[in-house]
Structures are given as C-alpha cells and as structure tokens.
Amino acid sequence: MRQQKKPTNVSTKVPPGPLAQKWIARDEKVISPSYTRAYPLMVASAKGCVITDVDQNRFLDFTSGIAVTATGHCHPKVVRAIRAQAGRLIHMSGTDFYYTQQVSLAERLSGLAGGGRKVFLTNSGTESTEAAMKLARYATGRPYFISFMGGFHGRTFGALSLSASKAIHRKRFSPLLPGIIHAPYPNPYRPPKGVSKEACCDFALSWIRDQIFHFTSPEEIAAIFVEPIQGEGGYIVPPENFLSQLSDLAHEFGILLVVDEIQSGIGRTGKMFAYEHAGIDPDILLIAKGIASGLPLGAMVAKQELMTWESGAHANTFGGNPIACEAAMVTLDLVQNSLMQNAQKIGAFLLSRLREMQGRHCLIGDLRGQGLMIGIEMVRNQETKEPAVAERSRIIQRCFERGLLILGCGASTIRFAPPLVIKRAEAEEALATFEEVLTEVEGK
Ligand SMILES: Cc1ncc(COP(=O)(O)O)c(C=O)c1O
Predict the structure, then answer these.
(1) Looking at the 3D structure of the chain, how many domains does it have?
(2) Which atom of ligand 1 is nearest to 231's Cα?
(3) pLDDT tens-digit readout, 130-166
(4) Is the CB of 227 under 6 A from ligand 1?
(5) Does residue 204 sit in the same domain as residue 304?
(6) HEC string for the chain
(7) Is the pTM of this model over 0.70?
(8) Residues 113 and 184 in one domain
(9) Whose alpha carbon is nearest atom 4 of ligand 1?
(10) Is 326 near ligand 1, meaning CB less than 6 Å away?
C-alpha cells in the first residue's frame, strides 16, 4: 500500500481502513448488490494516476475507472473547463434546444471519424449502442444483427442482446431481443479446437459466410457490431487482418459495420480509435468512456447518408450535456496533442517488461494488447491453458492491498488500463508490485 508522505489517519497496514469499512457497511445497506466491486476501495479523491481513499491510503490506478479517465484524474485543464461551463450553462436539453457546445463537439467527432458524419450524443456506452441498433434498423429496413461471442456492448435489453461476454449478465433476463446472431471472435490464444492460431480469423469469417448462406439472408442483416479489441471479454486482440476482412464482408452484402470503440477509443491504443490501426472506414462508430475524462457522455457517429431518421425518431433528455461537451473538447485536445503518443510509448514499455516477466512466471499464459490496453491472461498450466481463475482473483486482491489497482476481464485475464498520462516511473512501480504479488501467489 502506498501511503501519503505524511499520513494523517492511517491506522491499519492493509486496506480497507476503519473509515472505508464503515462506509462500505453503509453502502451494503442501500446500494444495489448487482454491482461488481473488485475490492473494498472507498475512494475519497484522485489526481493523475493516484487515488486516495477515505483513510488516506494511496493507490496507483491501473484501471482508469474502467478505461475512462484518459487524461488522468482531475486534469487541471479539464477541471477548469468544467468549472467555467458550470458557471455559464449546466443544462438545456440538446433534444429540444440548440446550444453551441453540442455543435462544436459533433463537428470535432465527425472530423476525427473521417468527415461527412452526423452525431447523436448520449450519456453512456450502452446508450450509444442502443442508438446504433435503432439507426441501423431504421436506415436499412433490415431486422437482424451480427455480434460476437465474448463481445460486450452494454446492459440495456438491446445492447445486452448483442453482448455475450458473461452468462451472469443475461441470467434471468430472457427473453432478450430476437434476431441476433453471435459469431466466433478470432482469439489467437484460444482458437477453436482443431484450428490453428493463424487460421482463427478465416474460421470466424467463414462461420459468418456459412450463416449467411444457410440460415439468414444477407439482405436481412442490418449491421455487424464489433469491438476492435474485445474489452470485457478478455482484452482479446484479433489477428491484424480481421477488421479489414470483416469490413469487406459487410460491404459485400450491404451490411453496416458498427465499430464499438467505447473501451478502445480516445487514444487508449495509441491512435484516437483502435480501428485506425486496421485502416477501415466504419459506417457507425460508438464512443463513450474516455471521451469526457469521467463526465457521463457518449456518442453514436454515423455516415451522414445513414442519418435518415425523422424528427422524434430518437432522442434523450441529458445526452450531450454542455459541461460534458466542454470536458470532451479539452480531453480530445490533450489526447491528440500528446497523450495518445504517451499511450503508445508507455504501452510498449509495459508490454516488453511483461514479456520478460512471462519468462519468470508460469502463471502468465498470454500477453497481448495495443498501447495502454493490455491483457495478461493467467493460466494454471501452459499446455492445457486451464484458466487460473482463483489465482487471478488473489492477484487482484493482493495488488490492491499493496497499493496497485487492477481489474479483471474475461475468465482469467488481468487488464492494465492506466490513465494515458502515466509516467514511466509509475509504470515501473506497478510492474514491481505486480511481480512481487505474482511471486507470492505462485508460492515461490
Ligand atoms: C466495448 C464496450 N461497449 C459498451 C460498453 C457499455 O458502456 P457503459 O457501461 O458506459 O454503458 C462497455 C462498457 O464496459 C464496453 O466496454
């Protein structure tokens, strides 16, 4: 555990301290038990990559609040923009009225997505997905969707119907939306039985073609929803040519390609959007999480010719709130000017050091990632690749106790997703803690 240089009220060695315990007991009485708290962290404040809890314990944040705080916690320029806008206009509902912040942000997002786009502003990733499902049906007049096993697009009924990352998300909520086909996502570390890692991309694309040939006519499929790197499903990086081949397949049949950049976007992979690494041109782009440095904001960015829906077809009260839009404009400046380059640089450093570590630790089965979206898959056996589920939980818990915040994804993967402002010294500190904990959990 990192402690402040002059700790004020640290009374325990291992968090949670006494105040955190009290607050967590109160939380349990009033907060929905459906949340998935990883460990007993009761946050009081945060700055850059450092979080301070209510007992004045300090932690290095390698979660970014689930890949959100791209510019670090409370970046002074973001805070200044929020304060200034809060004194001018807090709300006027962009659905029924005009204000300049929405226009400026939409112009910016259209440009970043290649130009010639129109934007629907939302409050979350799920809502961006939902808007895209509705637009895709509206614009094409087609009923079906394709998404991927392991994919995650949100938790409302529509978005949840596309999602297939964990059964618990769906349990007792059926029937979900009909007309959704879940295709295999190419996972080079875990290709289907009898398929080589080199062939897993062809396998996935052939699977979709078979589906189209035998089961669902392509002219009935509105859109394919895909994450360029699967996030909640395990930070799975598909083979290099997957996205471009999927894009070709979609366009061959007039199917829209919806790229979900909710977790991978806003500089996290070293480019503004992860799809740029593949050189494709999505029909619809989904954004949320990192875009406003922590304020609730999302966007569905579609090619202009697709935005054919009429007034009243889709809207919301809070989407594109002026304060969130201002925070987003500053966030985009910071990410474009230097942070995505930093993500590339520190991401490469972390990955190379983790590769060295892999040689020393049998629990690390696979390492993958782009920029600061890094997945470390833990296995009990390098040959059988049996997921090290309990060990992964133990590592996350012990890292927390030692002052490093990390999160899991997939069955037994750990994600490294620090704020894009992370410095090399902080990366080194995290690596040292992580390796100490690995050694301990491996019982060396
Ligand atoms: C790729 C992806 N899409 C959609 C969502 C849903 O976003 P939100 O939780 O903001 O609704 C998430 C959240 O983790 C995500 O990672």
Answers:
(1) 2
(2) 16
(3) 999 999 999 999 999 999 999 999 999 999 999 999 9
(4) yes
(5) yes
(6) CEECCCCCCCCCCCCCCHHHHHHHHHHHHHCCCCCCCCCCCCEEEEEECEEEECCCEEEEECCHHHHCCCCCECCHHHHHHHHHHHCCCCCCCCCCCCCHHHHHHHHHHHHHCCCCEEEEEECCHHHHHHHHHHHHHHHHCCCEEEEECCCCCCCCHHHHHHCCCCHHHCCCCCCCCCCEEEECCCCCCCCCCCCCCCCHHHHHHHHHHHHHHHCCCHHHEEEEEECCCECCCCCECCCCCHHHHHHHHHHHCCCEEEEECCCCCCCCCCCCCHHHHHCCCCCEEEECHHHHECECCEEEEEEHHHCCCCCCCCCCCCCCCHHHHHHHHHHHHHHHHHHHHHHHHHHHHHHHHHHHHHHHCCCEEEEEEECCEEEEEEECCCCCCCECHHHHHHHHHHHHHCCEECEEECCCEEEECCCCCCCHHHHHHHHHHHHHHHHHHHCC
(7) yes
(8) yes
(9) 153
(10) no
